[in-house]
Design goal:
The chain is built from 18 helices and 16 strands. With 496 residues, it is an alpha/beta fold. Strand 10 and strand 11 form a beta hairpin.
Length: 496
Amino acid sequence: MSPVKEPSANPLTLKERIKVPRQHMPEQPPELRVMNFHEVNLGYSTELARQEAQRCLECAKPTCVEFCPVGVKVKEFVKLMVEGDFLGAAAKIREDNVLPAITGRVCPQEDHCEGACLLHKKVDSLGIGYLERFVADYELRMGARLAANAPATGKKVAIVGSGPAGLTAAGDLVQKGHQVHVFEALHEIGGVLVYGIPEFRLPKQVIRDQIDKMREMGVEFETDVVVGKTVTIDELFSEEGYSAVFIATGAGLPVFLSIPGEHLNGVYSANEFLTRINLMHAYEFPRYDEPMLDLHGKHVAVIGGGNTALDAIRSAKRLGAEKTYIIYRRSETEMPARIEEVKHARQEGIEIRVLTNPVEFLDDGKGWLKGARCVRMELGEPDASGRRRPIPIAGSEFDISLDLAVIATGTSANPLIQSTTPGLKTNKRGYIEANSESQRTSRKGVFAGGDIVTGAATVILAMGAGRRAAKSIHEYLTTGEWQEISVNNQPQTVNS
């Protein structure tokens, strides 16, 4: 006898749901937001959230869940929203995602859950990210209590790095009853979330609120600890009494272009540029003054086509730059940045120069940048990334006047932990070798995940690695069994 299907609380029929347009996310108008660092997307109202939730088709086999790297039960949390149980919806998300207010803002849902939404076959997909953000913000406003953790196991786990992979693993492990301690090299918790993503896309207070939730869960945090210098992995085991270590340090070493003039004053890596803005509070000028980033009236270019490049140039616009350029060697079709971010950049007056590549930065004679010599490109056959390879057009050189240039063409692995941990295997590019399912490394009790394994990727993919690592760590701590790893991870780059 087949089970009886529960009646839907949705007042709309399936045909009616398809006819309802996706609810627009309220935004600051472009002419206003370029003058401040306040959040661009303003969030759904309760009415908009309910209307958007009612568009869900309640699929028998929700492919959105299958394509979510952390496995959020989309159908179930949206159903609770339709019923008006927003706190229940938030609790349902938290079963799989301890950072919902963050992923609701910066996850590229169009590549994951929303891209797999069946509505997308005929109309705009369900606004899953917008709905996740709404219930996460609602939960914070209401001060909801979190579910209790499992009984204490007595096992200590060290997490190295407080970015998305580390935080996710920490949240999952503390709920399983383990004692979790997160070590962060910088003075503020959050890793790339706090130093790499600008305030107008992910407010610092949102990150701090999510961190406070994790403290409520029992996660301990310690800043200004550079694992590999302040303390080594071996010392965490032998002297500090940890049973397992998860390395989630990201891939924060800048990659440059190796062209003449990169040494000039006024040429930055995206890492330094965004860190100066985020951790030195340049976004709060004039309350805080970061004199190196007084860009009023200046010409600024960012080289690259990923989200980091868009973050950097949109920040420069808000810091007073008069002319702002994205310089990208492929066409706009190949740009890895989110479509929404490209749209917002154009609305804000950013000029996107595609099929263009700098070949030299020009010196003003006093050691400062005065411009860039660029060459026009054309697209050839696809390369290893699957995108068509950019090829310089002979004789097409031209100059652009610049006061500041930011290189946002990717990152590589910082070798500090690898070089101070005997027996920890790395690949030829310096990334830690780890199994892509268990996140286990060549060292017993040592796990690794996120960008330090795969190369630069997205927040949600790093969180997926954190979840897999937490599951594997729990299994190891519970059984004591350790299998030799088979490495099947491949580094990937999303910024170049």
